[in-house]
Amino acid sequence: MKNIHHIWLTVYxxxxxxxxxxxxxxxxxxxxxxxxxxxxxxxxxxxSVEERKIVIFQIHLEKSRHINQFVKDINxxxxxxxxxxxxxxxxxxxxxxxxxxxxxxKDKLLKENKFFITxxxxxxxxxxxxxxxxxxxxxxxxxxxxxxxN
Length: 150
Hints:
The chain is of the alpha+beta class. It has one domain (4-148): 50s Ribosomal Protein L5, Chain: A, CATH 3.30.1440. It has helices at 19-27, 64-77, 80-88, 90-93, 106-112, 137-148; strands spanning 4-13, 41-47, 53-61, 99-105, 117-118, 123-130. It has a 6-stranded antiparallel beta sheet. The two termini are 19 Å apart.
């Protein structure tokens, strides 16, 4: 059964960031070969409020085999207490369109090679479009529970 329609993994790179290091850490979320599987890392430029140049890198997964592998990988990266945190916060992490959001601390990944959930700051953004049938919030929350149960 399909639990997720799409996954977007996004990170913002500031001028002082090392872009190649940011991209390498973005790839750590994915266990399969992006090039071989023809999954691209898109790159867009934007300006911040202070008019500083920001680069936005994003991986978009839409094939079931990629999504299933990604979810399996994320579950293996997260400690039981982090999964419990996600389940406790599931209501606030799910929006009205059944998108589920997680943020991973960018500095912890860059400096300590740890996948650590955060609610603010400099982070990798994960957005998952939850597949719930019928598409209700209640059903989407049940899918989230099934994804992150220990």
